[in-house]
């Protein structure tokens, strides 16, 4: 494991970037039914149906902002698109999204407070990203009892040694980090929940911090860090370099898309 400094690029985009939005700063804007419907209509019907299948209003808003974020970033960077509607999204056999006639690779994730998309603009590597909230772990021992099969014996040994003397909140954070690492790797592979998470072994995992950290997994690299609201972000790719982490102003994006249409 190594600690990495985030890179600043002042002239154009970096080749590998994680763009993220804080829902707490803009989610309320989409609780207005008119604005929500207006932005929904900028998306294909298949995407609209997927968003509407989400259970709660907050989940629908997060899903909508995630769909907008991918398009917003790609259009703003003038990548493979002349207009918003020229971005033709498809999904692979296992549901991983891609854009027709483009070389870049991307993957996105949303959580209670954050929406994020990881993009390799050069198409060097597949990408997997996951966001995790330690609050979702609940009781640590119950979590390990229920989800024990996703961990290898070595992982369980290291987890037990690490969390045994930690307060509950720190235990939850450590377990949530492992979950994000596992999920991001399965999304990198393009199998999602269809994958056997025990196959992806992460050892010598340090606690997450606001600075990105990198650890190897198989022949890939996982980079993880803390985002606001104690949200853990994990990104897996074949790249050896750390991605840029770039905050996008959600309100500005919503205004941009609204005025564009």
Automatic annotation (TrEMBL):
Keywords: Transferase
GO biological process entries: lysine biosynthetic process via aminoadipic acid
Record-annotated 4'-phosphopantetheinyl transferase N-terminal domain positions: 35-118
4'-phosphopantetheinyl transferase domain boundaries: 127-209
Recorded GO CC terms: cytosol
Transmembrane segments: none
GO molecular function: holo-[acyl-carrier-protein] synthase activity; magnesium ion binding
Enzyme class label: transferase
Superkingdom per UniProt: Eukaryota
SUPFAM superfamilies: 4'-phosphopantetheinyl transferase
One family name in Pfam for this protein: AASDHPPT_N
UniProt keyword annotation of Transferase present: yes
Known EC number: 2.7.8.7
Protein name from the UniProt record: holo-[acyl-carrier-protein] synthase
Species this chain originates from: Pichia angusta
């Amino acid at each position: 494991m190594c600690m990495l400094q985030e890179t600043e690029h002042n002239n154009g985009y970096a080749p590998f970037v994680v763009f993220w939005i804080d829902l707490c700063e803009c989610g309320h804007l989409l609780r207005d039914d008119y604005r929500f419907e207006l932005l929904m209509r900028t998306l294909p019907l298949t995407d609209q149906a997927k968003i509407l299948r989400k259970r709660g209003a907050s989940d629908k808003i997060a899903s909508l902002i995630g769909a907008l974020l991918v398009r917003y970033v790609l259009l703003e960077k003038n990548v493979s698109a002349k207009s918003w509607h020229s971005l033709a999204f498809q999904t692979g056999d296992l549901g991983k999204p891609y854009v027709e006639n483009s070389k870049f690779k991307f993957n996105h994730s949303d959580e209670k407070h954050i929406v994020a998309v990881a993009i390799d603009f050069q198409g060097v590597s597949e990408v997997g990203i996951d966001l995790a909230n330690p609050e979702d772990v609940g009781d640590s021992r119950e979590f390990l009892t229920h989800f024990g099969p996703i961990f290898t014996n070595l992982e369980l040994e290291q987890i037990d040694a690490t969390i045994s003397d930690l307060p509950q909140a720190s235990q939850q954070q450590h377990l949530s980090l492992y979950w994000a690492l596992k999920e991001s790797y399965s999304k990198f592979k393009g199998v999602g929940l269809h994958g056997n998470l025990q196959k992806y072994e992460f050892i010598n995992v340090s606690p997450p911090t606001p600075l990105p950290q990198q650890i190897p997994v198989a022949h890939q690299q996982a980079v993880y860090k803390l985002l606001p609201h104690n949200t853990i972000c994990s990104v897996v790719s074949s790249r050896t370099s750390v991605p840029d982490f770039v905050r996008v102003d959600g309100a500005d994006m919503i205004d941009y898309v609204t005025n564009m249409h």
